[in-house]
Specification:
Layout: E1 4-6, H1 7-14, H2 18-27, E2 34-36, E3 39-43, H3 58-61, H4 66-69, H5 97-102, H6 107-120, H7 124-131, H8 140-156, H9 160-169, H10 179-191, H11 211-227, H12 231-244, H13 250-266, H14 270-284, H15 291-295, H16 303-308, H17 313-334, H18 339-345, H19 348-358, H20 363-370, H21 374-388, H22 393-396
Antiparallel strand pairs: 1-3, 2-3
Helix pairs in contact: 1-2, 6-7, 6-8, 7-8, 8-9, 8-10, 10-11, 11-12, 11-13, 12-13, 13-14, 17-18, 19-21, 20-21
Length: 402
């Protein structure tokens, strides 16, 4: 009995494009290929690349004559389906981000990729403008990508109600059991620290997603484990995903390395945390893809200051600018009773020191980590206590990210 596979599966197996598979099927080079509606079903076990030397007998290897199965020349091939978050899903070398976007032939795919590029560079307003035309688009990959970008960017600019409205659009046109919809909802639910579905529904299969998107979902799963306080599991998820990636997907890789560094800081494995952090920075800096560093500033527990403040002051200032934009909005969502004072009153250095103090670090340990004096740490923590109106480490914890 013949086993069939889709055009996409055949293309992935042979390492060619989907259009090449369609053309081979249409010309009769794939013996046994069947047309079902507008799609082709390809025999999964009965052919290799037609351009390679045939291994079957001459009679068996002869293709069916094109005239017997050829479709009318006027019938166009069905358009290739778009993929969600095409830039995040793209593999490219650091420094080649814009060239990768410009090489995308479909104008709408290129348009949503530019919205991603703006967001991951910390250009939130530009990202909102670029994504807006695709909200509610008839193509699900475009509409869901636009919703995801808009939800995050609206948080960064303090438009929380707009972020919630856009979040509501995810899944509005599709049932919640649709795999892509559930993945997109998982990403946003993690941002808002929403609990998992009450029915305990498992994560849908990721096989239909492009590899870069799958790796980013691994970051989201690792972030979930971090929020549950399971630092070892979170670290294992991140490092396994980094090891399994077949090519370099910079955006997903940056986020995976950042969550690995965050967990290592919580496990007090500071040297390993720095290595992951600097590896992420090396991938991010050539294209300016530094949004993730600002998003995770507080959770990184001083790595931004320790690794960038003196060695890369320009990059440090760019990250801090993003941090002020994103973290102020994020804290107002998660710590509504106390976050305004933290967001408006504390500098990023004061916040970093307060975070480390609340996690039990000694003043001497913080000074070594940040390469500053103990007296400087004491001065800033005294100013922090005064600004927040607290008098102890226990009271300080209520203001910190959790």
């Amino acid at each position: 009995m013949t086993n069939y596979e889709t055009v996409r599966q055949a293309a992935l197996r042979l390492g060619v494009t989907e259009r090449t598979i369609q053309l081979w099927a249409k010309s009769g080079q794939l013996v046994g290929a069947r047309k079902v509606g507008r799609d082709w079903m390809i025999p999964a076990d009965e052919f290799d690349d037609p351009d390679e030397e045939a291994t079957e007998t001459p009679e068996a290897a002869q293709p069916v004559e094109a005239e017997k199965i050829a479709e009318p020349e006027s019938e166009p091939l069905p358009p290739a389906p778009r993929i969600p978050m095409p830039l995040l899903s793209a593999a490219f070398e650091p420094g080649m981000c814009m060239e990768t976007i410009q090489a995308m032939t479909d104008p709408d795919t290129r348009g949503i990729a530019l919205a991603e590029y703006d967001y991951f560079r910390g250009q939130h307003e530009a990202a909102l403008q670029a994504a807006a035309p695709y909200l509610g688009h008839c193509d699900r990959a475009l509409s869901l990508s636009a919703a995801l970008i808009s939800c995050y960017a609206n948080v960064a600019v303090g438009r929380f109600e707009a972020a919630r409205q856009v979040f509501g659009m995810i899944g509005a046109a599709q049932p919640d059991d649709d795999a892509l919809t559930r993945v997109m909802r998982l990403v946003v639910e993690t941002l808002f620290h929403l609990p998992p579905p009450p029915d305990g529904a498992a994560l849908p299969s990721l096989s239909a997603l492009p590899e870069g998107m799958r790796l980013f979902v691994c970051y989201v799963m690792a972030h979930r484990a971090y929020l549950d306080g399971n630092y070892e599991r979170s670290l294992g998820l991140a490092e396994a995903a980094l090891a399994l990636g077949s090519r370099v997907y910079p955006i997903a890789s940056i986020y995976l390395k950042l969550i690995a560094a965050i967990n290592l800081m919580n496990l007090r494995r500071v040297d390993e945390a720095r290595r992951h952090f600097m590896s992420a920075w090396g991938q991010a800096r050539p294209d300016g893809l530094i949004e993730g560093f600002g998003e995770h500033h507080g959770l990184l527990q001083g790595l931004v200051e320790a690794c960038l403040r003196r060695d890369d002051p320009t990059g440090y200032e760019r990250v801090i600018e993003i941090t002020y934009k994103f973290s102020a909005g994020w804290r107002r969502i998660h710590n509504p009773k106390t976050s305004e004072m933290v967001a408006d009153n504390l500098t990023t250095m004061e916040f970093t020191i307060a975070m480390l103090v609340s996690k039990g670090w000694s003043y001497q340990g913080i000074a070594r980590h940040l390469d500053v004096s103990v007296s400087y740490i004491k001065k800033l923590i005294a100013m922090t206590y005064e600004k927040l109106g607290v008098a102890s480490r226990r009271e300080l914890k209520q203001y910190m990210l959790r």
